[in-house]
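Aim 2 progress update. The chain analyzed this quarter is reproduced below.
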Amino acid sequence: MDREAIQQRFGIIGQSQAIRNVIDRVRLVARTDITVLLQGESGVGKELLAHAIHEISPRRHGPFVIVNCGAIPEGLIESELFGAEKGAYTGAVERRKGYFEEADGGTIFLDEIGEMPLAAQVRLLRVLETGEFSRVGSSRPIKTDVRVIAATNKDLAKAVRAGLFREDLYYRISTVVIEIPPLRERREDILPLFEYFLQRAAQRYSTPMRRLDEGARQLLLRYHWPGNVRELRNVAEQVAVLLNKPIISAEDLRSLLRGVSTGRSLIPMPRLSGQEGQDARERELIYRLLLELRLGVQEIKALLHRLVGEQIPRPEQLPAPMKHFSPPSSVWAEAEDAAFVEDVPFEEADEIDYEPLHPTPQQETAQTEAASSAAAQENTAALGSLNGEKLPTLAEAERWLIVEALKRYKGNRRQAARALGISERTLYRKLKEIDEAF
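Predicted structure tokens:
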């Protein structure tokens, strides 16, 4: 069976080179009985690929048994996998078969194998090595003819080093490893997948077919997709059921995409190219670390945008002392770049990050006057030192902006907060910090 036939039969949508490589490896291993380890993040479709391997293998007429190792309690997993004799434990009123007996002649799919307890790992290793096992409460060996496909979203090599997974079992189940790339690393497959799920949902729930405008399509492409294909299908079904309009915009989709309001899920993660092997994995690790660093830079940029952005004059409009510590032109340009800042609602973030404060009007007035007076004195001294080419700190610059805003609006905190681009609660908190600093 060729690649296109496999995709059509099992509903594997995508024409990216990454998914083509995965399907090619599936075709190669399916014709053998070799043990396969499927690695990939949650939601990438590991179970679907395991089912495809079984269905195009010589064992396709045998059973295909799925076992979620993470869903079985530790005390029961051995009896579930290998069966138990009558009276083997409290409640064992009769002999029962385990999953390995049920899968005899077919395939057993061990999902989330990284969650398997160490005691069960010992018994599993024996089955893989000898093809024999014994039920719980029995010493009589039972032969089984089972092909094992395992899957994990964990780094099993790291789990081995931490003593959470047996090294000998790791090498036994990873005879062939198939890495399934996350959705963000094959972005050319996002829109075809979404349209496929949207059409299926419209047929299933008898709803009109929706269409995405260009803004919505671009938002889907920019989204990080932490839940991968599973999350994409979930969003498509919500669009089909909840959005009663023929054309779907970016604003319609925004509330359905987890993490968009924080901006973290809009960072593009292009797929790395290069040779396979250790070098490629090291490059990917370095790249991901750089992305984390970039995220930190974006957060700092967002803070600058809030402090010296649209509501605050440009350097040439500032008072003479402030001109000495205005940010360079590149910072202004980056602050106006909405690629990563436009989706960050700072006021909402402030509302979430801090517990609500309810000061009395008298406390508010006293707090504002005390903090403004104290900060004004320090700012005067700090800004006066600029003649000696000493730059104020970011905290000093922030205090200066707050004091100037309060002066301009005659102590009205709401108007001052709006001019500074922050919430009134955040302004109150900063005034409290200034007052405590003195």
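Residues 260-277, 309-359 have pLDDT under 50 and may be disordered. The beta strands are 36-39, 64-68, 107-111, 132-133, 142-143, 147-152, 176-179, 211-212, 247-248. These observations will guide the mutagenesis experiments scheduled for the next reporting period.
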